[in-house]
Amino acid sequence: MLRIASYNINGIKARLPRLLEWLDDTRPAVACLQEIKTQDEGFPASEFEKLGYGAIWHGQKGFNGVAILAHDAQPVEVRRGLEGEPEDEHSRYLEADVHGLRVATIYLPNGNPQPGPKFDYKLRWMDRLRKRAAQIMAEEVPAVLAGDYNVIPRDNDTYSVRAMASDALMQPESRAAYRRILADGWTDAIGTLRPAGGVWTYWDYQAGAWQRDHGFRIDHLLLSPQAADRLSAIGVDKDHRGREKASDHAPTWVELKP
Fold first, then answer.
1. pTM above 0.85?
2. Which of 78, 100, 187, 257 could form a disulfide with 228 if both were Cys (CB 3.0 to 4.6 A apart)?
3. Cα–Cα distance between 250 and 202 in angstroms, integer?
4. Bridge-partner residues for 170, per DSSP?
């Protein structure tokens, strides 16, 4: 089986011991990271090499930033950043070929506060992502678009609809933009295999959210038809969220048949 994981690490330097621990424990074939929060020259590639992982990354000082790690392989970069807004300098998208797959790591804008310019940027970014996803779809390759989408797709993907009702993550416009991508032929792996919901990938640091299991699902792995045909399992490494100085996200993964 080929395990492809998505992990918003919330600062790769602050969480490096936890990240290395997770890689050593679970050994995913590919790990798509978000919010590495470091400039390119500060990325700790040598630490991953010790565990047998090749890496590419797209950094930014202090916030955002994405990376792709591959076990016993070197990802071959296909694209960094999305077309459509030349003035957009946020490091939020990186795409590569690795292990016979097209893989993208995605850190979609949060969009809060809404309404406002940040929410407008989120929706434009989602439209740009959809256009790139359509180009990948047209190549008819097994592909996985993995990342922190900052979208709660369904009511059963949050502990409380009422608590999240005014958040940008759950606005009708955010959900509609996400559904449009799925309607183009992409499969939400976790949503498909766990239709009843109740799967959380994020727990806020505030208000005892972790201790009370007040979480929601915003980390998604979307599969092209060629990858969806090979889908065998999904999971969330929830115990890693509960460890000391952990990210507020848990690693989320799919397994594909060879």
1. yes
2. 187
3. 6
4. none
